[in-house]
Amino acid sequence: MRILRLALSICCLWVMHFSPSFAQNAETLTFSSDMRIEVTTGWVGRQITRDAFLVEHKNASNAVDASMTIRVSGRLSHAQALQRLVLIRSQYPEATTFTLIGGWPGLERTIEVPFQRPGESENDTTRNKPETSIQVLTAVAVKDSLVRFDTLLQPGAAPERGDEALAMARTLSAPPADKSTSQEEMRKLKGSAIAPTISPPRAYAKISTPPVQGPRSAKPLNTGGRAGGAAAEEVAGAGEIDAAASIDGQYFVTAAACGVSYSSDGGATFNASNINGGPTSPSTVDGDCGVAWGPSGTFYLSILGSHPVEFVALYTSADHGADFSYVTNAVDRSAQGINVDQPHVAVDHWNLSASNQDQVYVVWQETNNFVSALACSTNGGSKWSALASPSSGNYGYPRVAVGMDGMVYVVSRSWPNNVDIDKFSSCASGLVEQPGFPFSGPFGDAYGQLCTGGPIPGLDRCNDGNTLASPVIAVDDTDPNHIYMAVASMNASQTGQDILVQDSWDGGLGWGPVVAVNGSATAVRFLSWLGTWGGTAYLGWYDRRFAGNTAADPNDFTRYYMGSVTSANGALTPGPETDLMGIDDPQCAGANTNSAGQISNWANGTRESQDATSCTVQPQYAGFCSTTNATCDFTLGCPSGQTCNSSPYGGVPKYGDYNTLATGGGRLLNIWASGTAPANLSPTGNNLINAYVVVTDLPSDFFVRDWTTNASSHDNGEEPSTNPAFYVTSDVWNQTSSTVEPLVNDWVQGDAPIAGGPNCPPTCAVNYAFARIARRAPAAPTVSPVTVTADFLMADFGLGLPFVDLGSQTVTFAATDNDLFTPGFQWSVPATASSHVCLAVQISAPGDAYLPPSLLGGSPGAAGTDPLVLQDNKKAQRNLQVVSGTGGEGGEFYAIIHNNEKNIPDIEIQEFVNPESAKFVSGSQVTIVNPARGDFAKGGRIFLKGVRPGEDRWLRLSFGTVSVPEGKSATYQFQEVAQNKVVNGFAIELKREPPASIVRSGLRREADVLSRFAAIANDSAIKKAAQESESFSTGTGAVDLNQYRTLLLNQARLLLGGFIRHTDARPAQDPFGLVAGLWAMDVSARSKDEGVMSTAAGALMERLDAYLTWKRRAMTPQATR
Question: Are 941 and 1035 within one domain?
């Protein structure tokens, strides 16, 4: 970071997009296909990146004294562009004026702010005081875009440069606007309320070990032994820290003040890396080393070049960080005379390019006007794209992150109390800024514009050449639309800082409330960083909670902490925080080696005298005498005739300009700088600042899938579940066999549960409940085995009965297990139960229990347990009826729609079938069995008018021709819709089996229904018929059609008498068509087609089962829909 404050004047041939008039007369600059401005004499414009233009003015000394950056960003709508204007106004409302520019609504602002200085440069004793500069902004909402003109005047520049910048922006020529509309928009803008400032955090981290119950995010991290992460170790380097991990957590690379180290054993030991080729000499290297890992297995190292060459060199390592070799300069701005500072490198962990190579990204700030820049490579860093300009105003300090979907996020400071978040497509997709971005929000800022009046004792830079607020962004590694953002921000009382985290579930457009990852104790906190694993955000930061104001307890006592935040159901919950030091580091005493090879606690001075004079312990030799350049204490001063001055471009920096961390393979690596060794290591002499690491094994978040489409599209444990149809393809199911059936589309279809049986009790039919349990992310290979308990529950949805406990199974996860099937749990369905049964599971592991309350005692339904299942990834439910058939006729089924709420709603049900299933079924029809006035079914939708509390309405679902191929299935879903959202439903799974198997499964179903009928009616003759069906179903091989025909004819005669004795099935009292179904079975039995016979018998059983449920519910109408 040893760079000059102003870019030198270099004569170059620029590639520009100018209109013809500008090219000839240097007057007009076209910066968009339909927008341009007139450039004032003395100013020169050029394109500097693919989406940004720069207009500069040079003074009499030929040095740039003012620069304007022009950038157009697309918004989602013109209304959103206007909202952006309102937000910009809220930054400095008193200095902002709304005005029409080019016929469109806009604003203008001129402010004087402390001048930002870049990283290190040679000491300049003539400039020993903080300086101010003028910032001028014009922003215009043109159609669906926002046009920004950001101008920065260098200290001492003539004030008229600002006036000229405003005048140039006022010459904007844009597509014509409607005059009356613009005037009305101006009226509304001038009356708009100032945007709200950031609210205090709504939650703080726990300090002690959390209780067993409570938010699952509050999991204690493993702190036993090296593998657990309590023991710190030293690695090469000091401040300016970066770190990277392989996806499996086996390999780590750290870079601290460009001391590069690597580990090949999961962080147990570290060794120095070799760096070969390229600009590695002290004269060409200026620090700011960054590291990253790519899915090719390559580690990447970036090194900032020193003046007069302005570049970022890129190196790669194919041996896990042991050796790095120079590839090329990822960034080279020497031809443009643009200074480069604080680069960060990132690699897409999930998506290779079309050439099967890593997609690599670099961000940095350009310090002549402090704007952010972004470049990328699709071939592992060999060649680089044209540059993009992420939004940042004139504040810079960008950080970059890449999501599973390849989207690229850049967060930058955009004004003292805010950040801008910009979003781009992947490098392979052109690195295109996404509509609706950049996004700005009042995320807060740790120390305002500069630390004057409130320094951080012991730091040699305080928001001067760095940002202690350290805004950083990270993408959830389990959900590409879930984004975390963290920043160090002033607390509500303005007496310290909190490390705040916010998240977005829509890819960065909308953001939720903040939480503090630190405990509630007031303290100075700074330089936080953020990473994710298993959907949880992990953070590290410097913390002065134990600092006092005495010699024994001075105000610079500092430790390093880590913490976590989990997002579920729209709320962030902080986990416990952990002290990684165990001892205080007095940062005023923290020492580096100066240019003469001497160890000094202010090796290169400080940029602001208060950084040293505010230290409790005095004296502090942080200044330089004006003549001899000898070190001096600001209070004691220098020999006569000299003054003790600060070093505006000084600072090592002692503890770095940023501090990162790395996650991979269930491990978290924290790394920080300290002049005091952590408590587990031997003390160091001279307070020499070193880098230390702690590698922590992260706890697992176990879950059960709510839905699966296929192996690449399924539930990843998000809370709430992202699919409202959680009851169809969940990872809890029933089988009639005790071994897990083969997966179809990566889920088990299972079997409909067999009820009771003709000999129940004492001998009841056996079912087996299964669940598949998964980790949200892989665990570290050193973690101990974990036993997960799966508790199975059943609810008779048809009879409106609540969940009852069936029992539990356990499964033990080794470190290498990512998902496991439970053993089958044997269970029985009561003989009198309905066929509408819900099976559920809830799981728990030590420190990772399901959220209370339990499903036990609750009833399925939108007003019952459905929200508990949707909001907890440790609960799952299946209410799927699996129906087998041979093809041809489909059959019919019944569903209950019940209102268990207190109001009288109109209920809408929609039929949903995916295109793949629709190919296999035709002639489906839905009718209302007992329609009320106003009910109707049309076009796959059912409308039930005014369903009273406790009332039931029944639906008949019939299928015509079914042609499902063997090995495939067709799923029909029926979804309740309220306010255009799916809130409940059920599904039927149709699958094909051989004819003999279909007949025998149909006979088992007959045995179930007839057993239920016999138990309710206490009729021995019907029980005997059930026993005959059961006996016939147990055979193997082909079915004897004559025997099957005889069985059905005998049952038809028996059931006719049974219906007469035990039912009121008369034409007016037979809504389910029992009599008609009976005659249909009798007729089918005289055919020679076993499929026709089985379909008719099945339809009758469905009607009888529905009738029995209907009558029983009439006696006990306590159910859920």
Answer: no
